[in-house]
Specification:
Layout: H1 2-15, H2 23-27, H3 35-51, E1 52-53, E2 58-59, E3 62-63, H4 76-93, H5 96-112, H6 122-139, H7 142-155, E4 168-170, E5 173-178, H8 179-196, H9 199-216, E6 227-228, H10 243-260, H11 263-274, H12 276-280, H13 299-313, H14 318-338, E7 339-340, E8 343-344, E9 358-359, H15 360-381
Antiparallel strand pairs: 1-2, 3-9, 4-5, 5-6, 7-8
Helix pairs in contact: 3-4, 3-15, 4-5, 4-6, 4-15, 6-7, 6-8, 8-9, 8-10, 9-10, 10-11, 10-13, 13-14, 13-15, 14-15
């Protein structure tokens, strides 16, 4: 049985090797192999088929393209997550087409961004750095490491004493501090420390995390607020509660725990994760919310990526089991509604069929859920 299952997965990967239109779908007649891996692979093929623009070396903003929606605006941080999703596929399958696609996307982003990676938004740069650091880990390509390090040096310039510390959201608004610019920076710094052993990176990770926890986390519930001083009045945006913010704070705690083995970080991550169901899911269905189109469509994908990282630390922990169940419920619904005649295309709501036009952010978010479920599946089968 095991040999047959392995053979099925190998056959599936071979069939998909050249990004053929619809070929993988013809191979998925049986479900005794790795179901979530198959689904993730099919979604990867759909991403390539429906969104990729070979001439620009970038993914289009939507499928099908309509007027300027294809290319404008330049959604830099969406493309960072596209690189992250390609790394997911590479780690899962080892397929060379993923490494080849990463190389094309790397060059396409450089070409579109005037030959450099830094931009004006610290949170955007953090996502790009995280993606290329993972790409370096996966492929060993030195240019990806260099991109991550160049971005990290720029990101650190966003720290200042306004609002008691923290990294600013953007270079033209240095007194506005938020979770999107700080929790991912803590993840990045902790990962850099784990990869390269620079104690200064660990000190940065601790400093950023400490500010984030003190300034933008409800000490009672672990709920993560979005930001402070957005309007210049020092107020905390406590009504801005997004899945994204919970995800990156969970990820920061998980990474600092891996870097230090200090239990407090793991406890923080679990506390926030345990509050997810009460704060964000439907009591009737267990579904995570739709947070709209555009940038908001990516928020749930960010959450499930870092929920997956927390689960991986100790799959037998009760919080981890509950989170795995949450991912499964949402994944089943995503696939039921998203897998249709047009292929594996997804909706902002994972309990609805996709719109006529699907944005790249929406597609990537669903793919992150599928890839996390494929990781859980692989772990359970090993």
């Amino acid at each position: 049985m095991l040999a047959a299952a392995v053979a099925a997965v190998v056959a599936m990967a071979a069939l998909a090797a050249a990004w053929p239109n619809g070929l993988l779908r013809q191979a998925l007649g049986t479900r005794d192999a790795a179901v979530w891996a198959e689904r993730a692979e099919e979604a990867q093929l759909q991403l390539q088929e429906s969104f990729w623009d070979e001439g620009r070396g970038l993914y289009n903003n939507a499928a099908p393209c309509m007027l300027q929606l294809c290319t404008d605006p330049f959604n830099y941080w969406w493309l960072a997550h596209a690189a992250d999703v390609l790394v997911d596929g590479y780690e899962r399958s080892g397929g060379e087409r993923y490494s080849e696609q990463l190389a094309k996307l790397y060059q396409g982003i450089l070409d579109r961004n005037a030959g450099v990676f830094p931009n004006d938004y610290y949170d955007d740069m953090e996502w790009m750095a995280l993606a290329w650091l993972r790409a370096y880990d996966a492929t060993g390509e030195e240019r990806y490491k260099e991109a991550a390090l160049v971005l990290w040096e720029d990101i650190k310039t966003g720290w200042n004493d306004e609002m008691g510390g923290g990294i600013a959201w953007r270079k033209t608004q240095l007194d506005y501090k938020n979770t999107p610019a700080n929790a991912p920076a803590a993840i990045l710094a902790a990962r850099l420390y784990q990869r390269f052993g620079d104690e200064d990176d660990l000190a940065w990770a601790r400093k950023i995390y400490d500010w984030q926890k003190a300034a933008l986390v409800d000490p009672g519930t672990g709920l993560v607020w979005d930001g402070m001083n957005r309007m210049g009045d020092g107020a905390i945006d406590k009504d801005w509660k997004f899945t994204y913010g919970q995800g990156v704070y969970i990820g920061a705690g998980a990474e600092l725990y891996k870097a230090t083995n200090e239990a407090e970080y793991l406890a923080d991550a679990r506390k926030t994760a345990a509050y997810l169901k009460e704060a964000f899911t439907s009591p009737a269905t267990g579904m995570l919310p739709s947070e709209g189109e555009g940038d908001g469509a990516l928020f749930k994908g960010v959450l499930v990526r870092y929920v997956g990282e927390l689960i991986a630390l100790d799959p037998e922990d009760e919080t981890a089991k509950s989170l795995a169940e949450l991912l499964q419920v949402n994944g089943d619904s995503l696939w039921e509604y998203g897998k249709g005649a047009e292929g594996a295309l997804f909706s902002n709501s994972w309990a609805q069929t996709p719109d006529e036009v699907v944005q790249l952010s929406t597609q990537l978010s669903g793919m992150m859920l599928l890839e996390q479920l494929a990781r859980l599946e692989a772990r359970n089968r090993s």
